[in-house]
Design goal:
Order of helices and strands: EHHEHHHH
Protein name: Lactase
GO molecular function: lactase activity
Largest sheet: 2 strands, parallel
InterPro entries: GH (IPR017853), Glyco_hydro_1 (IPR001360)
Number of strands: 2
Strand content: 5-15%
Distance between the termini: 39 Å
GO biological process, one term: carbohydrate metabolic process
Shape: flat
Family: Belongs to the glycosyl hydrolase 1 family.
Length: about 160
């Protein structure tokens, strides 16, 4: 199994000229991704193109409370950043899928394959359900209450059910 790598959301060279607010960032990010795929793609099988788009767009541009801290006092800047983020991800994904996957065999997740759908559902239950289920239903997700004890992962003081 290969290593995981996340492409940085805003390396210095990509932050020039208004960073994610500038429309040229999409092509520049694609070029940056191309360099990474070309140099590291044979060693990395799972890629995350961009991480936490809401945090970068809203908290990084609208409120300046997170990196990159680019408050422009524009009521639309964070929406522009979000749009650019989506476009940059799309370009990087298609580049990876079309140019590199045939030879590097990276594994993009397929929503049509039941095993990938199941993996996504398990991820959501452990990532979001861990906190949301107790709030909305009073207990952990059934998936967690089944898998954790079965794998011997329950720690001292951690038991099911929640109450």
């Amino acid at each position: 199994m290969g290593s995981n790598i996340s492409l940085p959301a805003s390396p210095a060279s990509l932050s020039m000229d208004s960073g994610w607010e500038n429309t040229t960032i999409v092509q520049r990010f694609r070029d940056y991704a191309d360099v990474l795929f070309r140099h590291f793609g044979s060693q990395v099988k799972f890629w995350i193109t961009l991480n936490e788009p809401f945090i970068v767009a809203n908290l990084g541009y609208a409120y300046e409370s997170f990196a990159p801290g680019c408050r422009t006092f524009s009521v639309v800047s964070h929406r522009i950043v979000g749009k650019q983020y989506i476009a940059a991800h799309t370009e990087a994904w298609h580049l990876s899928n079309d140019k590199y996957r045939p030879t590097q065999h990276g594994i993009p997740r397929n929503p049509c394959k039941q095993e990938d759908v199941g993996a996504a559902q398990r991820y959501l239950q452990f990532f979001i359900g861990w906190f949301a289920h107790p709030i909305f239903s009073g207990d952990y997700p059934e998936l967690m209450t089944t898998i954790i004890p079965k794998q011997g992962l329950a720690a001292d003081g951690f038991s099911f059910p929640l109450t």
